[in-house]
Design goal:
By secondary structure, this protein is α/β, with parallel strands linked by helices. The protein is built from seven helices and nine strands, in the order E-E-E-E-H-E-H-H-E-H-E-H-E-H-E-H.
């Protein structure tokens, strides 16, 4: 991990840009460290996503948590994947036409992204946990839900997750969802125009976690109410704060 820049925001949050090999990322720490870490997922394109990510990171810092994110494969300045671009175009065409999205399209689009990005997230987590600013445990928040499922299943350092049910999941990955037992909070926008609501409900039913909560709100993909973030903050405070039961 190589830090490129750092500056302190007006609420005493330290923001640092870094690279992990050729993967760009951003790391935020609160005024007091060491702190538990929350990994911030997103749909790709760090420059465009930065305002929302920074707002989420500052909300984490207000609760005493550090936060970090990395760019996804094929997004931002990273090399594009023609195969993924074609699958994404096919997905958008199916949604626009109002026809069911074929499982083959989802498999072509999502599976390679999961296979490549999860090891990258784990490498980033290795590097972040070696820093003096971080003291476990680790939470996972948002992003492409299929990536989150695989990452949370494989990495025991992640002890709680807030999942965003706003992207498609290959049906073959439901078996991985059955192996998730950490506390989960799942956010679902009921009228999300780009999401298969029934798939999201089936996926929630599949999770084996003894503690899982579905937070469903009316509205489309970008209509997430502010209080949803507050619920996520309370969830992580319960499970990641130093006083939380282990």
């Amino acid at each position: 991990m190589h830090f490129l820049s750092e500056h302190r925001l007006d609420d005493d949050v330290l923001e640092r840009e870094f690279t992990l090999g050729d993967i760009p990322g951003i790391f935020w720490t609160p005024g007091s460290t060491p702190a538990p870490l929350i990994l911030l997922g997103h749909p790709g394109g760090l420059p465009a996503m930065y305002p929302r990510l920074a707002a989420r990171a500052r909300a984490c810092a207000a609760q005493g948590f550090a936060a970090a994110t990395i760019e996804l494969p094929g997004s931002g300045d990273r090399p594009r994947s023609p195969t993924a671009d074609q699958a994404r175009a096919d997905l958008r065409h199916a949604i626009k036409a109002g026809v069911p999205v074929d499982d083959e399209i989802i498999e072509r689009l999502v599976r390679p992204l999961v296979d490549q990005s999860v090891p990258e997230w784990q490498s980033a987590l290795d590097a972040l946990l070696s820093l003096p600013d971080i003291e476990g445990p680790v939470g996972l928040s948002g992003g492409i839900i299929a990536i989150a499922i695989r990452l949370a299943r494989l990495d025991p350092r992640i002890t709680a997750a807030v999942l965003f049910a706003g992207s498609y999941v290959p049906r073959a990955m439901f078996e991985e969802a059955r192996q998730l037992t950490i506390p989960l909070q799942v956010l679902l926008q009921w009228d999300d125009e780009g999401n298969d609501r029934q798939l999201a409900l089936d996926l929630f039913d599949t999770f084996a976690s003894p503690e899982k909560t579905l937070l469903a709100n009316m509205g489309g993909h970008t209509g997430v109410p502010a209080h949803a973030g507050e619920y996520a903050n309370h969830f992580f405070t319960r499970h990641l704060s130093p006083s939380a039961p282990r």
